[in-house]
Design brief:
- With 225 residues, this protein is an alpha/beta fold.
- It contains 8 helices and 14 strands.
- Helix 6 packs across helix 8.
- The longest helix is centred in the middle third of the chain and has 16 residues.
Length: 225
Amino acid sequence: MKILVIEDNEELRELIVRSLKKERYVVEEAPTLRVARMKTSIYEYDCILLDLMLPDGDGLTLLRELAVRGRKGNVIILSAKDSIEDKVEGLELGADDYLPKPFHLAELHARIRSVVRRHQRDGQPHISMANVSIYPDQHRVEVDGKPLDLVRKEYDILHYFVQRRGRLVEKQTLAEAIWGDDIDQADSFDFIYAQMKNLRKRLKAAGAQVEFRTVYGFGYKLVEV
């Protein structure tokens, strides 16, 4: 799952990013409104953590722009401005939650899980496709009720595609979603080919009734078989 942390306080931002990476999220950062605008205009995020007081503008401005573009990013406002007016306006503009500073990281993690569970899984603890079930809060996969052991990136890829079942996902889009900003250091997609090859083998060996199909020159899609 990919999260964007929009926060100008470097110390707090780094603390949040480190804690989220420990929870196995793909995390990107934006210290200013300008960077946040650029990233949200190009990339999609499963959750956005938004500070209201940015050095070059108000975080509510970004919320308005996201609403105009029809982009919903599961936004949680993080702000020291604990006023009822800001909270009401932020929620009315499309934010899903409001967490005043200071806060405990454990509470932040719980709110992220709650927002994502509400929007992506209809409040359910798992998502399923055919005989494959994924339990995101536990990073666990089952096939016909039996555990399927996957390495981290294999799990991330499967989770991403199950949420987009039947849809064609381009290689560049997949790389950005699973590897985040680290993709800028890659000069080819060979690492994706290797991960997909291993994941296909594991799913087939487990008797999964889903398979990845390659659309040559474009990317992949996950379908039931």
